[in-house]
Amino acid sequence: MKVIRSREFTASRAWGAIDIATMNGISSRLHWTDQPFEWHVNDGEEVFAVLDGTVEMLYREAGEEGSALLHAGDVFFAGEGCAHVAHPRGEARVLVIERAVER
């Protein structure tokens, strides 16, 4: 059993995270950041839920570039092959659910 107070979580570096759970090869991690990530394409699908703060998500799909401004409670789904990058506006806490990777 775990209770995680996401608004209280900070990390020593941008995109630092704590593991919440790994179930059937899918990881759930809470990230803290105040800096952009990098353009990337995940190995599979990804669910990105903003728990605290505001994040601008830039994405490229089918040759088109777009942007979505995400606030607390908003969810972004990156399908397989969707290039994306998250740009927080100030501090943000984000729940990321994706295929587990070896760490």
Automatic annotation (TrEMBL):
InterPro entries: RmlC-like_jellyroll, RmlC_Cupin_sf. This is Cupin. It comes from Rugamonas apoptosis.
